[in-house]
Here is the input.
Amino acid sequence: MINKDRLFYGSCFALITTAFSFSIRAGILEQLGKQYGFTGEQLGTINSMWFLGFPISMIVGGLIYNSVGGKKIMQFAFLAHTVGILLTIFSGGNYMTLLVSTLLIGLGNGCTEAACNPMIADSYEGNQMNAMLNKFHMWFPGGIVIGSLISKFMTEANTGWEAQIWVILLPTIVYAYLFWGQAFPKPKTEAAASVGENIKAMLSPLFIFMFACMALTAISEFGPQQWVGLILSKSGADPMLLLAITTGTMAVARFFAGPVIHKISQTGVLLVSAVLATIGLFLLSKVTGGTAYAAAFVYACGIAYFWPNMVGFVAEKIPASGALGMSVIGGVGMFSSSIFQPIIGGWIDSAKTEAAAQGFQGDALELAAGQATLSTMVAFPAILIVAFIGLYFWTKNLKKA
Here is the structure.
């Protein structure tokens, strides 16, 4: 018998593990840099392993989902998470060990998406499916809120970065317990269970278009968030509170996603999201002090619906792509984020050099470099505005036809 509630709650705790690994790592970046002398580019490369492991395991998980089942994929996720967390704690700041441990955590995170997205899509129908996918993905920003606050208070208490990493193990143990002995639902359609049919559906123009858009939605979300501690550390606003506000707003927005999608449609939500994300990111690149919190709220309203509704769009509009299609869409999002992490780190280093050449020093130097980097990132959601305008009118005309 399928226990949908227990499976759903297990999925949520697995995503909280992913969120903790994201937010707590963001919170300790500055400590790692100072303690071990890592450059921005080196920190970016460590970050990139988290994003690289994600798409690898997502795509492999999507390919084998129908043959091995979601349960075994989640068992591997638990193994990868546990080993990755422990390796990080006992790395002693060794650069190569941090690369490997971060990669393992990324692999565990990707397995979570590969197993849980299709499981939820197969458990529910129509608007309820979209609502449950959003509620599931609510726990990524929700977990980031909790994780970022934990990181902030532990950092202020001088507990050390290793103690913060131990916290990630707690939701890992909870999801392992909830998934223990549970059966996963079967795919809804016969085509969705065939890798050949999955690939055929993924070669459609619509899927290829969404594939390209997902790369931009992901970096629009994960680029600024992962670097908020360094980028806005001298803005006059608390970086971890900015992260908490951003992710808290996202969590609330995703919880109430069902009525919003019903009112303005899935593609309408994506278009409005791109507009708000562009405005919010632009404001973050210009304002300082308390105003940055308001800018973070606007930015959060923009990126909140990107990830779950991109996955939901594929599940609903291209159902024959199956678990593989959902995994590939998520995978390209994380892969693009992986590619851009060291690039963003390099942008920060270059911006610091330029600002120093202009005479900036100390906190003013850090702020100028951070804002310049955010200004560069505005291009990502701005491109999406044009793309989603086209998608909105295409789907509208398709309904009329």
Remarks:
- Residues 322-357 form the longest helix (36 residues).
- The chain has a mean pLDDT of 87.
- Residues 58 and 113 are 7 Å apart (CA to CA).
- The chain is about 85% helix and 0% strand.
